[in-house]
Design a protein that fits this description.
The chain is mainly alpha-helical. It has 19 helices and no strands. It comes from Pieris brassicae.
């Protein structure tokens, strides 16, 4: 029996390929050996890291202005997103791999309505040929009940009622809550739903109040133990420098009260996770939790200019403690992104590179021909989970889906980044030099994006995940070129 190379080789480097291979021989299926390639093309990761040590400076998102907006019909985009999701989620539990077919579609503007009605899906290279029931492999979408998808015609009140029915059950059906949350969570239900999906709040309603009181008291103890005592100077200094640079155009985040709350959250997390410590960019991952819990404490208020001192001390303590615990749970599955040399991100960048090569070889070759290394643009996408690439309300909507992913969002995020890159394909192919490509990739024009754009993005990511996960031979010829 042949052996297969593990994700990390003996030298501590990561395998470039991420297509899963069987751990034992299967009758009738030839085994494949995946050759080891270099971890990063071009210069070493350490050299690149040194060259982008200012990657989170204030002006990095303002290099260019005036890029024309992509025109997207809101009605069409929402319909397409919902129909793509619906086409996958209505699969029966015993569907065979041979039943998974992806059909061709070439959508012209005047044909969009017909395409939505027929619920066609783009062809990306053929169907899987193996037979037998689909197993629940990590990274492969699981069959989802139709109740996971709320019709676009239903009112927001109707969707909120569905959430309330699930949330008020004596014993929560967490799978049902995930199904409902995947396509977006109503604002009024978001805070409690995020606590539940993050694993911070127990499913049993009778234990929730006691658990919240206990965890919030624990956080106060951590503040006294770590933050109010003698601090580790280097960690605190880096956090103290980064916090004022966070969202400089939003008055809320320039308030001293808010910045101190973020400092405490990040410092305590870093001290409690010494394998990684504080890494630039983690501060961006606190923001969605902070905003969701702030919105719960101050409903129907304009948050951008809300004086946080107008809230009671109890309210501020709740926001801070819940943001800390939910962040901790959220980062558990991606902590290797932030350990020494950030090996997890290196591996994910290689995954994205191979995935795009298999999905869209012309685009991959276009980037390679003009000297664009995937690390140069996708490092920040992976490190900040796209929080720097899309508006904050869109990030919160995206995290509804991340938190609802049954296999954990870390795998799904790879396909989201792939869908995000492919979204700009036409414009990227029109760029004819390295500078033009990098300006677009590092400053994608998403300032006017809304929830409908995120619905399209996650629908496309789901489609890619369904088509490519666990498919090492799919588009095999596309994987031969690596320039």
């Amino acid at each position: 029996m042949e052996s297969y190379q593990t994700e990390y080789d003996k030298d501590g480097l990561l395998s470039e390929t991420f297509w899963r291979t069987p751990q034992r021989a299967v009758p009738g299926r030839p085994l494949q050996r995946i050759a080891q390639n270099e971890v990063m093309s071009g210069s070493s990761y350490q050299q690149f890291q040194a060259s982008v040590n200012d990657a989170w400076d204030l002006g990095d998102d303002e290099i260019i202005s005036g890029i024309a907006e992509t025109k997207i019909s809101k009605a069409i985009s929402q319909s397409v997103a919902l129909n793509v999701i619906n086409s996958h989620r209505n699969s029966s539990k015993n569907v065979n791999r041979s039943d998974v077919k992806i059909e061709t579609e070439t959508v012209k503007p005047q044909e969009e309505a017909i395409a939505v009605k027929k619920n066609e899906v783009k062809k990306i290279g053929g169907s899987s040929s193996a037979s037998g029931p689909i197993r629940h492999y990590p990274g492969r979408p699981r069959p989802v009940r139709p109740s996971a998808l709320i019709s676009r015609e239903e009112s927001s009140e109707s969707k909120l009622e569905r959430f309330q029915q699930v949330l008020e059950s004596s014993v929560l059906d967490l799978n049902e809550l995930k199904h409902l949350s995947w396509s977006g969570i109503p604002v009024k239900a978001r805070a409690v739903t995020w606590r539940l999906l993050a694993g911070y709040l127990p499913a049993n309603t009778e234990r929730r109040a006691e658990t919240l009181d206990s965890k919030r008291a624990d956080y106060k103890h951590l503040v006294r133990q770590y933050y109010d005592a003698e601090r580790e100077e280097e960690t605190y200094r880096q956090i103290h420098i980064d916090i004022p640079r966070m969202s400089p155009l939003v008055a809320l985040f320039q308030q001293n009260t808010v910045q101190v709350m973020f400092e405490r959250i990040l410092y305590i997390w870093a001290i409690r996770h010494p394998a990684s410590g504080y890494v630039q960019g983690i501060n961006d991952l606190v923001t969605p939790f902070f905003m969701v819990f702030l919105q719960e404490a101050a409903p129907n208020k304009e948050l951008d200019n809300l004086p946080l001192d107008s809230l009671s001390e109890v309210q501020r303590d709740i926001i801070e403690a819940d943001s800390f615990w939910c962040l901790s749970k959220f980062l558990d599955s991606i902590q290797d992104n932030y350990i020494f040399a950030q090996l997890g991100i290196q591996y994910k960048v290689n995954q994205l590179k191979e995935l795009i090569r298999r999905i869209d070889l012309p685009l991959h070759e276009h980037l390679q021909t003009h000297g664009v290394d995937y690390l140069q643009f996708s490092f920040r996408w992976m490190n900040n989970l796209l929080t720097r690439e899309i508006p904050l309300p869109c990030t919160i909507r995206l995290w509804d889906t991340y938190l609802a992913e049954s296999d954990g969002f870390a795998i799904f995020q790879l396909y989201v980044c792939a869908a995000f890159l492919l979204h700009w394909r036409e414009r990227l192919m029109q760029e004819r030099d390295f500078q033009g490509l990098m300006i677009l990739l590092q400053n994608v024009p998403t300032q006017n994006w809304t929830d409908s754009n995120i619905s399209m993005l996650v629908a496309e990511a789901y489609r890619l995940k369904f088509a490519f996960a666990d498919a090492p031979n799919h588009l095999h010829n596309a994987g031969k070129s690596d320039r």
